[in-house]
């Protein structure tokens, strides 16, 4: 595979971290985690847990061990934080870079970006409650296509997952089926009777619904042409 086929646009390459310009932080955050883990899981651990430090006892006092005293394995472990900082700063535009340029560790950089674009824990908790309510009240709109329903539903669920709220497959699938209008009731009944909703992915469920929607549209068009 050529390099051109691997690189689609700036920030959309398996070789470069996704770029963040200050918008769609949740989207960037998920992609960045995936990218960093693909490089080395230990780099991501440095972001979550902080840089590796080593202490030893001097005169009954615990102090940081001098870098010159570190063995090769200790230096290698400490390098993951440097790698993480390099990847993070390489993914930011100028404004976002200057938000984190004075941070001492990748963990601190990540936390600054989180607080800036997601808010404090209180803000995230309020947003989470609002999204949960939006999820619970979710319904198909009049004249809305299944593709649009999927887009709205996935947007809510993905944001909830980013805030730590997750649902199992069966719960999500039942929610989707219950949100559909009455014209979909025969298909809903068939799916409930023939499918194991605990193993069916929500994407596969929406695929089945889209197939049915296409067939319904074809039959409606056929009936309309026969009446003319």
Describe the structure.
Helices cover 64% and strands 4% of the residues. It is mostly helical. The relative contact order is 0.08. Strands 1-2 form a two-stranded antiparallel sheet. The chain has two domains: 3-118, no CATH class; 121-227. Helix 3 crosses helix 4 (72-90) and helix 7 packs antiparallel against helix 8 (146-162).
Secondary structure tally: strands: 2
Residues in helices, as a percent range? 55-70%
Instruction: Estimate the global geometry from the Cα principal axes.
Output: elongated
**N-C termini distance:** 53 Å
Number of domains: 2
* Main β sheet profile: 2 strands, antiparallel
Q: Radius of gyration in whole Å, from Cα? A: 25 Å
Which ranges are low-confidence, i.e. pLDDT below 50, for 5 or more consecutive residues? Answer: 1-9
Strand content: under 5%
Strand order of the largest sheet: 1-2
Roughly what is the average pLDDT, rounded to an integer? 86
- Secondary-structure element order, as H and E? HHHEEHHHHHHHH
Based on secondary structure, the structural category is mainly alpha
Give the count of helical stretches.
Answer: 11
